[in-house]
Amino acid sequence: EQEDIMGHRGSPEQEHSGDGDAPSLDTEKHKNNGSMGPDDPYLQHRRLTDFREPYRIPHKYIARCKGLTVENDLAETPLIAFVNARSGGRAGAMIARVLQRAIGHTQVFDVTENRPDVVLRELWDTLERYAEQNDADASYIKRHLRILVAGGDGTVTWVLGTIATLGLTPCPPVAIMPLGTGNDLSINLGWGNKFNESWIKYSNIYNTLLQYNDADRQSVDYWSMYATAPDGSYYDTVPHAVQRDPDNPSAIKANFWNYFSVGLDAEAAYGFHTLREQHPSMARSRMMNQAWYSVFTCSTGWFCGVKPLHKFASLRIKRTASSDWTEVPVPSSVRALVALNVLTYGGGRDIWGLDNEKHLAKKDLQPPFYNDGLIEIVGFKDGWHTAMVMGEVNSSTLHAKRIAQCNAVEITLSVPARHESMKKYLYMQMDGEPWK
């Protein structure tokens, strides 16, 4: 399936500078002597809204004073923002505060307090209710609404998944302000590989928001994942983007936009995720996070002691939606399988690698793209191979093992317990969100 998203064709600066504590996301409430006067709700609202709101005169009354003929008082690009205040170290809370002042407090939502599914369902229900009453403004906002997501890949795909699940029509396009460790979807769509504090400085915030207004719409494939286990106890916990199937307690389902993987890379991601949840202060910057990823990668058995994936995994694919399932052998050297939708993995690494079309065609492959209706299946081998691929030593000759390119894939996994009282875990991750 495909979903609209916004891509930026510019090249934002990638340097990150600045020091100091993050401003608090909490807003000061209006204080009084214990009684609520008739103006108090407005005064509280004014503290929480954008700079111009307390002073604004509707366009229709004042535009002609400057020789303008603007009659429409609606925003050219109605915008709401979802911010993960915990992402990007101190940056998330700072971005939330700047956006609250720039576009209004009521249009900025911290996903740790306001879930995207709740917000978008309420907003869409409200707009549709007014549109049914022939409210032209509501219809206009529905047609022109855009969404900004400030966060990592997990936050971005959470919002995208909510839009897909709710079936919002017309589909509002989504822009990205990257705050995560990988930021692969942001990289592929031209929004940059990491946050730059200069984007939200007072002198730049106008141009930053203008990019979201002027960005082109692009379609991006997304894929449905459905997993079943012998019983529901096999899933200790699952990320917020993964749902348990209400009709089958032993199954989970989700959509993904970047990649889905199983094996040692997912185990390393799970180790880092656990560290970040238990000790947030140890994962406060993108560079620190990448260092921890390297530590967990080395400790999960890439270099020794782990059996190849083909010992407990089998693979079937459909090359097209109408074709039959075909068995594809898992190479004996592979220790992790990745189903790849976008062109990069793990923070901008091109693990598919460069190649010419004629050479790919001989292997029944074609150059990949994020809206071609195909998903690429690749594998990581031992630790040395993985390190060189992720280090991008030479992407034209050294890349992940290309296994298949298809329209659907089925992976069957089997890991017997050592004895009845001990389970051995399989690790999976989807768009940077791991589980076991």
Structure description:
A six-stranded antiparallel beta sheet has the order 15-14-13-10-17-18. By secondary structure, the protein is α+β, with helices and mostly antiparallel strands. It is built from twelve helices and 18 strands.
Summarize the SSE layout with pairings:
Layout lengths: L1 E6 L32 H9 L10 H4 L16 E5 L7 H13 L4 E3 L5 H17 L3 H9 L1 E6 L1 H14 L7 E5 L5 H5 L16 H10 L1 E6 L1 E6 L14 E2 L6 E6 L2 E5 H15 L7 H14 L13 E6 L7 E3 L7 E5 L16 H6 L12 E6 L2 H8 L10 E6 L1 E6 L14 E3 L2 E3 L1
Parallel strand pairs: 2-3, 2-4, 4-5
Antiparallel strand pairs: 1-6, 7-9, 8-9, 10-13, 10-17, 11-12, 11-16, 13-14, 14-15, 17-18
Helix pairs in contact: 4-5, 4-6, 9-10
Short description:
This protein is 28% helix and 20% strand. By secondary structure, the protein is α+β, with helices and mostly antiparallel strands. Strands 15-14-13-10-17-18 form a six-stranded antiparallel sheet. A four-stranded parallel sheet has the order 3-2-4-5, with helices on both faces.
Q: Mind summarizing the main beta sheet?
A: 6 strands, antiparallel
Multimeric status of the protein: single chain
Helical stretch tally: 12
Helix content: 25-40%
What structural category arises from helix and sheet content? alpha+beta
Rg on CA atoms, Å: 24 Å
Distance between the termini: 27 Å
Q: In percent, how much strand structure appears in the residues? A: 15-25%
Strands in their spatial order, largest beta sheet: 15-14-13-10-17-18
